[in-house]
Amino acid sequence: MIDSLYAIIDAEVADHPLALTFQALNAGCAIVQLRAKRLDDVAFLEIAKRVRSACAHAKVPFVVNDRADIARLVGADGLHLGQDDLCIEDARRVVGDMQIGVSTHTLEQAAAADAEGADLIAFGPVFKTRTKENPDPVVGIQTLEAVCQAVSHPVVAIGGITPENASEPLRAGARYIAVISALPRFLADAS
User: Fold this and answer.
1) CB of 64 closer than 8 Å to CB of 79
2) Exposed end of the chain (fewer CB within 10 Å): N or C?
3) 66, 82 contact by CB (below 8 A)
4) Is this prediction's pTM over 0.90?
5) Catalytic residue among 4, 52, 67, 103
6) 76 near 48, Cβ under 8 Å?
7) If we measure between CA atoms, which residue out of 90, 106, 102, 188 comes closest to residue 153?
8) How far apart are CA 34 and CA 28, in angstroms?
9) Residue of 4, 35, 52, 67 with catalytic role
10) Would you call 132 a catalytic residue per the annotation?
11) What are the pLDDT digits (tens) for 10-40?
């Protein structure tokens, strides 16, 4: 299951984001994403440089959340966009052919992101989540399965995923499971 783990390191929540990154990399996660919604540019850039270096050393793709400028500056492997961020076309002007993932919450949004050229389609929340203050409505496994069948690019299931329920999104067709708050539990189980 770790080979499907899309580890999201929230630099504003994790006590030691770089240490958590090293743990995720040592456990064999598939992808590392760094997010920091409220950090200033300089602080985010410094953390991104360090996480990028660790990921490059481990040969694990590194993705920056929301910030096309930071992604380009650090030479990230990917950029992840939310529904209220840059559109894919505009982001491509900044990051070129870098992999772009897009968060989606409905089948229609997922199909649109797929048609617009997203390389990864994040879909959720699959389960009830505590990470976001105002989460979107839970989409459930059946809708996730419909999205996985409808789009041509890999799907990243996100939202409320724990070691106990992680196999369900994978059985529904998701290529990756994105984890934020339960990441330490996944890493403890992997060691």
Assistant:
1) yes
2) C
3) yes
4) yes
5) 103
6) yes
7) 102
8) 17
9) 35
10) yes
11) 998 877 999 999 999 999 999 999 999 889 9
Q: How far apart are CA 67 and CA 191, in angstroms?
A: 32
Using CA atoms of 88, 94, 99, 103 in order, give the dihedral in degrees to the nearest 10.
-40
The residue annotated as part of the active site, out of 37, 130, 132, 185, is 132
Owner of token pair 């650090």: 74
Which structural domains are found in the chain, ordered by start? 2-190 (3.20.20.70)
Token digits of residue 146: 């419909």
Using an 8 Å Cβ cutoff, are 123 and 144 in contact? yes
Our CA dihedral for 87, 85, 66, 83, rounded to 10 degrees, sits at -90
Give the pair of three-digit tokens for residue 148: 């996985």
Within 13 Å, how many C-alpha atoms sit on residue 92's CB side? 9
Q: Is there a catalytic annotation at residue 35?
A: yes
Per DSSP, the three-state class of 81 is strand
Task: Examine the residue annotation and report whether 37 is marked as an active-site residue of this protein.
Answer: no
CA distances to 35, 62, 147 from 82, in Å:
12, 17, 17
**pLDDT tens digits for 45-91?**
999 999 999 999 999 999 999 999 999 999 999 999 999 999 999 99
